[in-house]
Each structure stands twice: as C-alpha cells, then as structure tokens.
Specification:
By secondary structure, the protein is of the alpha/beta class. It has two domains: 3-236, 3-Layer(aba) Sandwich (Rossmann fold); 252-450, 2-Layer Sandwich (Nucleotidyltransferase, domain 5), CATH 3.30.420. Helix content is 34%, strand content 20%. The chain contains 17 helices and 19 strands. The chain has helices at residues 3-9, 17-24, 40-54, 67-81, 143-152, 178-187, 210-215, 217-224, 228-236, 252-255, 305-318, 346-352, 364-375, 401-406, 429-442, 460-468, 471-481, and strands spanning 29-34, 59-64, 95-97, 102-104, 110-115, 132-135, 166-171, 199-204, 256-257, 266-275, 278-287, 292-300, 326-332, 338-339, 344-345, 357-360, 378-381, 388-391, 394-397. The model is unreliable at 1-6 and 446-455 (pLDDT under 50). The structure holds adenosine-5'-diphosphate (ADP) and magnesium ion (MG). Magnesium ion (MG) binds next to helix 3. Residues 40-41 line the site of magnesium ion (MG).
C-alpha cells in the first residue's frame, strides 16, 4: 500500500476553525479546552491520524483516564476510520494489535492507546519515548501523572525527519487535574524551568460545533439546564466558577509547616485508614491550646494487618515515643467486621500485634465537616509585632507528603451534597484517615487534656477483646480506655 492509496481512501472531514487552530499548533504543549461537545476529542483523534500519516515512523501515545472511555471515544472510532476490520488487507489503512492496543501504519508510524486508571498506571510509560503524547480530558489526570508523562515525551529516534516532541491536551474544567491545567493554560503562572511560550491554549465553545448544533440540539439543551456553576463550566468553559475542589480552604502557606520541636505538653494520637491497597497512618499531636499537628505519615500499600501494626509501632518508636505515650489509635469501624475465612477482624489482628484500635464513625458528611472545621483559616495577631496573619487549628508537617498532595485533589461528589468524590480511590486514603481523627476530635467535649472519664466508652466488642486477652494486653487496655465502667 503506498501513500497515494492511503490518501485516496482516507476521508478527512472538514474541521471547525478552532479545531484547525488546535491541529496546526506546534507548541511544546497545546491545550484545547473549555466546553463539553466542542469537538475536542474529534480533533485529538484526527490529529493523531494525520500526524501518523504525514510523518513516517512517528510514535504517538493517545491517553484517556479509563479503559471504557478509551474504547468508546477512540478505539472504536479509530478502527472505523482506519478500516482495520476490513477483510481485505489492502483496504486497511493501518493494522490494529489488540494485545498492545496499537495502530501500526505501513510507514512505520504507530498510535498507541493507553489509559491510567490508578495513579501508578502511569509508571508503565516511564522510560519510553513518544514523539507526541495526546492527553484526552487532561483534567482527569493528576499533576503527578502529567509530570511522569512529560518525561516520556521525547524523540523516539524512529522518525525519518527532525521533529520536536509535543503534547496535546483536551480538557474540561473540573476534575482532579483542574488545578494544574488551570495554572499552566489559564492562569499562566509558571514555576522553575517552565517557559510561558511553551503553553498554548485554544478555548472551545459548544456553539462552535455545527454538527452538534444541527444533529443534537437536545444535548445543548441538557447543558443549558445544568445548575449554574456546572453550566458555566460545561457550556461556556469557564474555569473560575466551577472548580469542584472539595477543600477549597486548603492553603499550603497556612496548613503546611516544617517540622519543629514538639511542645512540652501535648497528647499523641494515631489515626489510620487501612486496607491491603493502602495503609495511611498519621501521628497527630494536640497541644494544650487545642492546636492539632499532623507530624508523621505512613503511606504504604500491600501490608497485611500484622505487618501494618508492626510498621505503626516502629514509626511510633522512631519518633521517640513508647506505645504507652499514644493516647488512642483511631480507626474506622469497618475494621471490626470479621473476615469469614479467618474468623477475625483486622482490628483483632492489630490487637494481637500490639496496636489497640479505637472505633470511630465513618459518617462521611459530618466527618468532612469536622476536617473543614479544623482547616478553616482565621486571622490572628502575631504576639511579637502585632501583625495580623492567617492560621488554622490544623497544621501538617511537610513530611506528610501524600496527605498534602491528596487534600487539594479531593473533589466534590457528583450527586451527594456535602460529600467528597470517592474517585480516584488512590487520593482518598490520607484524607480518610484525617477524617477519622477529625470526627473524633471535633466532637470531643473538652480540649484541656481530656479527663479520664471521657476516655472511650467500653463497647461490647472491646469487652469481648478484653476478656479474651492475656494479662499484659488487659493492663494495656485499662491504661488506654480507663477502668471498665
Ligand atoms: N468537524 C466535525 N465534523 C463533524 N462532526 C464533528 C466535528 N467535530 C466534532 N464532531 C462531532 O461532535 C460531537 C462532539 O464532539 P467531541 O469531539 O466528542 O466533543 P468534546 O470532546 O469537545 O466533548 C461528536 O459526535 C463528534 O463526532
Ligand atoms: Mg471529549
């Protein structure tokens, strides 16, 4: 098959002016953003095809966040356009390899389709080289994923002519990546070695999509009927009004601090979220003013419960504390549900390994409200010079990297009022652990080093644990929870 045949059989549609602008851009990073239905995915797909045909040997990576989106939005349309399913090989414009999800063109070009469901899926592209990377719905990708991908955007060495690597993005406002996309392409605030001239933004409006206006006016009506903020984002592509960020009060300048010497009087808690996929555990201190500081983070996946307990005890020791110094270790109540095959709960196993957990509520709405209450910034005067400055009850030591990374990524839930989205799952572990601490603490009756009487009520489960325990464990439990009432 020679190129002429290819051009004869490929039916290139006519593009709208904004689509042409996007496709012509040769900047290092070009984003086509704004309203839904503007024709962005369409343009991205065709850009990949036209590049592959124009430049022999070019290696292109086309990414979406999830496999179903990839299949619907690109895989099926590309198979159709490139006629990969034709029985007669001569009629095919490219071969499609299902195992690797690649379209291979006769000129050696390749369009590889990929998705990054979880944060770490992106690591599979590390060390690879793609001349062009197209990131579809870029605001669904985290900044970490974007950064990792930029490292793979380099000359593949397989092209016949010189070509400077580029990335193309399509995006709607809102999503885990809202902040970084907005910073680079809308606010145009640049850091370190980022250069302003490398970033081009082409805004899109649904009204510019003639095809949709004529063929699917209902779709536009649906957008017009959305609640105001979402409508402004989806219909007009407004990046300011809709920002879906759950913790919009979070501010690194207020909430993050470098570790300092601990105060003389304080109370130490631990709070954790545990599953095989991730142990997120925080050491938290409360001083006698009731200020809360998250001083240490454990963030590790694939630990069975006994290993997790060991990790936690080790961390406490490394911080210079004994187990007795820990007032309570707070954990969500589902850790008490028994595993049918083991006949034990995770809490049982933690307990057998020397970490006695205290149940706290998983009430999401009230839990998040409690976190927000602790994060709420307020003004206060510097006692030395009288200057006003902003502060908050809760501060996080800069060593708690994942918590600091994940809090600003949390989004509002699509339908549940006052709740945060549970996706992407990876970013929820740290904030969840903080929520368990917060719902406990905000509801605590007194800040002044909590009187013994407040110590946990003995629940039936705890009593059962107590009666099954050996003397040493019993002593510990009394120490922690006070005498049995
Ligand atoms: N130039 C075009 N010619 C014909 N149809 C188009 C064109 N651009 C977009 N469309 C169609 O408009 C609809 C919305 O486009 P899409 O690319 O999915 O929008 P977006 O990704 O911006 O939400 C799709 O059905 C697409 O096929
Ligand atoms: Mg799209």
């Amino acid at each position: 098959m020679n190129e002429q045949v290819v051009h004869l059989t490929l039916q290139v549609p006519s593009f709208y002016p904004k689509q042409i602008q996007f496709m012509k851009s040769k900047a290092r990073y070009t984003a086509y953003g704004g309203a839904r239905g503007g024709g962005k995915s369409f343009a991205a797909r065709w850009k990949a095809i036209l590049l592959a045909m124009r430049y022999s040997g070019i290696q292109i990576l086309l990414l979406r966040r999830t496999l179903p989106e990839l299949r619907e939005n690109h895989l099926i349309p590309l198979q159709k356009i490139l006629k990969t399913e034709k029985r007669d090989r001569n009629e095919r414009l490219a071969e499609y390899k299902d195992v690797t999800k690649e379209f291979i063109f006769p000129n050696g070009s390749r369009i590889k389709l990929g998705y990054c469901d979880s944060e770490n899926d992106v690591l599979q592209y590390q060390g690879q080289a793609y001349d062009v990377i197209i990131l579809e719905e870029a605001t669904h990708f985290t900044e970490f994923q974007f950064q990792t991908l930029t490292e793979s955007n380099r000359p593949s060495g397989l092209m016949e002519e010189p070509f400077s690597p580029r990335m193309y993005f399509t995006c709607n406002p809102g999503g885990v990546g809202h902040q970084w996309v907005k910073r680079l392409f809308i606010d145009r605030v640049y850091r370190h070695s980022e250069r302003e001239e490398d970033y081009v933004f082409i805004p899109s409006l649904v009204y510019e999509n003639k095809w949709l206006m004529e063929n699917d006016p209902d779709y536009i009506r649906t957008l017009e009927n959305l609640p105001e903020n979402r409508r402004n984002a989806m219909l007009y592509g407004n990046w300011d009004v809709y920002d879906g960020q759950f913790f919009d009060e979070f501010d690194r300048n207020i909430h993050v601090m470098n570790p300092v010497k601990l105060p003389d009087v304080f109370r130490l808690y631990r709070a954790l979220d545990y599953g095989l996929d991730m142990l997120a555990c925080y050491h938290i201190i409360i001083d006698n003013k009731g200020d809360v500081k998250v001083i240490h983070e454990i963030y590790e996946s694939n630990l069975i419960a006994s290993e997790a307990a060991k990790k936690i005890r080790e961390a406490t020791k490394d911080l210079g504390f004994s187990e007795q110094d820990v007032f309570l270790t707070l954990a969500p109540d589902d850790l008490w549900s028994r595993d049918a095959t083991l006949g034990k709960s995770a809490a049982d196993i933690f307990y057998e390994n020397g970490v006695i957990l205290t149940k706290v509520s998983r009430d999401r709405v009230n839990g998040w409200l409690a976190v927000k209450e602790l994060l709420h910034p307020y003004e206060t005067r510097n006692p030395i010079n009288g200057d006003l400055f902003k502060t908050a009850k809760l501060k996080i030591y800069s060593v708690c990297r994942n918590l600091i990374r994940c809090i600003p990524l949390m989004q509002y839930h699509d339908t549940k009022h006052n709740d945060a989205a549970t996706e992407p799952h990876e970013i929820t572990h740290g904030p969840d652990a903080l929520r368990y601490f917060s719902i406990f603490w905000v509801n605590a009756p007194s800040v002044e080093l909590v009187p013994k009487a407040y110590r946990m009520q003995w629940t039936e489960d705890m009593l059962e644990d107590y009666y099954n325990a050996d003397d040493r464990m019993r002593e510990r439990m009394i120490e922690k929870y006070g005498e049995i009432q």
